[in-house]
Amino acid sequence: MHTQTIAELAAGLRAGDFSSEELTRTLLDRIGRLDPQLNAFITVTAEPALEQARAADRRRAAGESGALTGVPIAHKDIFCTLGVRTSCGSRILDNFIAPYDATVVEKCQAAGLVMLGKTNMDEFAMGSSTETSYYGPTRNPWDLNAVPGGSSGGSAAAVAARLVPGATGTDTGGSIRQPASLCGVTGLKPTYGRVSRWGMIAYASSLDQGGAFGRTAEDVALLLQVMAGFDPRDSTSADQPVPDYSATLNDPLAGLKIGLPREYFGEGLDAQVAEVIEESLAEYRRLGAELVEISLPNAGLAIPSYYVIAPAECSSNLARFDGVRYGYRCENPQDLLDLYTRSRGEGFGAEVKRRIMIGTYALSAGYYDAYYLKAQQIRRLIGQDFRAALAQVDVIMGPTSPTVAFDLGEKVDDPVTMYLSDIYTIAVNLAGLPGMSIPVGFVDGRPVGLQSIGNYFAEAKLLNVAQRYQQVTDWHRRLPPVG
Ligand code: GLN
To answer: CB atoms < 10 A from the CB of 26, how many?
Structure first.
């Protein structure tokens, strides 16, 4: 059962081939056996999962089931889950039991999806390798010495290792697409505002967006269908109708115009990754697409602009973790200031502190114009580049990441090198566009991902473009050497 896709499992449940309880037990068993090695989960919710599964089976027996009733998934530990620890990968929230469900969690539950647990992540989603997690790093199922990418590395690894058929993630600068790429799974970051951020712990609010991992584009379409939609509780939620993402999945690609940004194929891109990407693009040509070179002239400014804006927003968002209202509190505080400083000092890890300091500095009175304002101006230019390009082409394609998965420990002590692993994904968040990564090959046994970037709310197009490729290739069906 564990190798089946969400679509296949849903069909099996519908046909009565197995119950949700059986399926849930099988996957919990696998998690119990394999996760000690992988560390993809921070919390496994076995008992509540079995209860949810039995409830799903009862709904089905009563003729009240929906398309995905009884299918198991996992949530990134950044989504608040009622009555379940929601740690965000941080010591400061290690003891935090969320008093409510995030909208995404609520929607998944309403659809009858069964939550198996909460997945590992970089602390507060700050990182590209899941190594900044307070709970230790997740390992890449393709090679246990390699990182799974980040920050949603636990979700990507869990799907790659077939511990769950699908999982949620969030993407502020690449945290769905980059781990999808490094773990050889399919991941979609929707348009900013497409999926509610309510109950999703904030990192950089103007960039954060929830999305999904699956093995196939078809599965990601099914999950997005559940997650997407207007939410009055999120002031930046888009009040736009949600299309039927499965309806256009199989549309032909003849005449599709694919733009290849010159800046995404230059210096810094690993030569072997480039070769695999070229082959995948040739496949698109055979599917009837037309490939044209385009330019995103300000692409090189994305990382510096992001690493002012994201820390600025995080320094403000993380001010709420003060040791008073919830989360970790230091022992024997001497006075209020001591309570604040020691609770935060002991509760946050090094990368989070680095970002809070950068953000606070960039927002301070004397530097605001020089850094934050400048970064926002660059952000606008980056958005304009994409809009101009997408007026000429239907989608933009290129590598998701400049390299395949790197070794554990390889970049932890070098933040700037770590930041560069998001060089092709970050600009997409600055522009608020949807982006997707699909597996298209391997270099030395480690997966390579192809990124597609679409126009605002063109998720259906991205899913269609991914699905057609997956119909003629089998990279997404390959199994990593675990269990
Ligand atoms: N790696 C980037 C960062 O550390 C992006 C992370 C994310 O998308 N959450 O900010």
So the answer is: 14
Q: Is 421 a catalytic residue?
A: no
81 in ligand 1 pocket by Cβ < 6 Å? no
Pocket lining: 427 vs ligand 1, CB cutoff 6 Å: no
pLDDT band at 483 (very low <50, low <70, confident <90, very high): confident
Task: Select from 177, 422, 424 the residue to mutate for testing ligand 1; criterion: most ligand atoms less than 8 Å from CB.
Answer: 422
CA proximity to 104, closest of 190, 204, 13:
190
- pLDDT over 90 (residue 108): yes
CB of 204 shorter than 6 A to ligand 1:
no
Looking from the CA of 427 toward its CB, the CA atoms found within 13 Å total 30
Determine which one of 20, 65, 90, 175 is catalytic. 175
Q: How many CA atoms lie within 13 A of 242 on its CB side?
A: 19
For residue 474, what pLDDT band results from cuts at 50, 70 and 90?
very high
Place of tokens 């290739």: 473
Euclidean distance between CA atoms 148 and 127, whole angstroms = 11
Which residues partner with 446 through β-bridges?
443
The reply to whether ligand 1 has any atom less than 6 angstroms from the CB of 422 is yes
Q: For 450-461, what is each residue's pLDDT tens digit?
A: 999 999 999 999
Domain annotation for the chain: domains and CATH numbers: 6-254+462-477 (3.90.1300.10)
Question: Pick the catalytic residue: 20, 90, 151, 452?
Answer: 151
Known catalytic residue at 280: no
Q: Locate 68 and state its tokens.
A: 């995905």
DSSP state of 121: -
Among the atoms of ligand 1, which is closest to the Cα of residue 429?
A: 8
Q: Is the CB of 418 under 6 A from ligand 1?
A: no
pLDDT of residue 371: 96
151 is catalytic: yes
pTM of the model: 0.98
Question: CA-based Rg of the chain, rounded to a whole angstrom?
Answer: 21
Asked if the model's pLDDT at residue 424 lies above 90, the reply is: yes
Q: pLDDT class for 97, splitting at 50, 70, 90?
A: very high
End-to-end CA distance of the chain: 13
pLDDT of residue 186: 98
The conformation of residue 113, written as its DSSP 8-state character, comes to P
Sorted by sequence, the CB contacts under 8 Å of residue 236 that are 6+ apart come out as 192, 193, 197, 205, 206
